[in-house]
Amino acid sequence: MTIQIHDQTRCTLGEGPLWHPERQQLFWFDILGKRLHTVEAGKHRHWQFDMHVSAAGWIDCDHLLIASERGLHKFDLRAGTMTLLTDMEAENDVTRSNDGRADPWGGFWIGTMGFNAEKAAGAIYRYFQGKLTILYRDITISNAICFAPDRSCTYFADTPTRQIMRQKLDEDGWPQGAPEVHIDLRGGQLNPDGAVVDAEGCLWNAQWGAGRVSRYDPEGHLLSHVAFPAAQMTCPAFGGSDLTTLYATSAAQGLTGDDDGKTFLTATTTKGQAEHQVIL
Q1: 213 is in which domain, residue-wise?
Q2: Helix (H, G, I), strand (E, B) or coil at 80
Q3: CA–CA separation, 184 vs 77, rounded Å?
Q4: Which neighbouring-strand residues pair with 265?
Q5: Is residue 138 among the annotated active site residues?
Q6: What is the number of domains present in the chain?
Q7: What is the SS3 assignment for 160?
Q8: Which CATH number is 90's domain given?
Q9: Would you say residue 162 lies in a domain?
Q10: Among 76, 99, 114, 127, which one is most buried in terms of CB atoms within 10 A?
Q11: What phi and psi values does residue 146 have, to the nearest 5 degrees?
């Protein structure tokens, strides 16, 4: 695959790429830079915040749900204004938001973690029908939240465990039973970061430190790798008019390479899922 640079901006901690299906536009974050980025009419644009922001879902053409260190917010893309929807660990100075994604029922799953990756300081929540519910506690680095196209399950990871978990879901999208190991990366000493599931049910996982995004079949078997010119790949997303373009964010934190922290794209023969709409 030919890797291209979608945007030259070097993010300290690029994360949370979201292809907005109505706007046909990619949004992504620099968590440590406290910024939301996009490319609009061929030009780079960003919004600066006074708090760390990390993940988003789309509400409608002009509004995003944005996760921050203090809560979940409705963000107006035209006015550049934020409205708080719910607090989330707002009184906890240790943690911030990290990985998150909208679910097929209109909810939003969001994980937290310590600013310094403090052990077991974070959690994973679901925001659904106006209520925030904690699903998993004692999470160190929440990552890889994504959903199967048939709505049967969700996936998530606590990065230091080097395992991606599979969680069955009931008809309303709530966890059913205990999660089980779906992909075990301990043998290769690989660190699972953000992930997305394509239309065929295969999981694409960015692997921090390995400079790649790897694709696994619905049974968790490795199918292929896409290599990128940045070591710290953080999260993939499918976009483009036919959802066959693979985008991926990266982090420049602690690195000096010219491409570290940039946001990439590559054409694939695989179709992704359209990102689900958040229903408030």
Answers
A1: 4-267
A2: coil
A3: 39
A4: 4, 247
A5: no
A6: 1
A7: helix
A8: 2.120.10.30
A9: yes
A10: 99
A11: -160, 170
Q: ∠ CA(18), CA(279), CA(143), 5° rounding?
A: 40
Tens digits of per-residue pLDDT, 139-175?
A: 999 999 999 999 999 999 999 999 999 999 999 999 9
pTM here is 0.97
Give the pair of three-digit tokens for residue 243. Answer: 């959802």
| DSSP structure string for 212-269 | EEEEE-TTS-EEEEEE-S-S-EEEEEEESTTS-EEEEEE--TT---TTTT-EEEEE-S
pLDDT at 1: 81
DSSP structural state of residue 276: P
Please indicate, yes or no, if residue 276 is contained in any of the structural domains. no
Q: From the candidates 103, 158, 193, 259, which is the catalytic residue? A: 193
Is 274 a domain residue? Answer: no
**69, part of any domain:** yes
* Amino acid identity, position 103: D
SS3 161: helix
Tokens of 223: 């199918």
Burial of 43 (0-12, 13-18, 19+ CB in 10 A): exposed
Find tokens 């301990």 and name the residue: 186
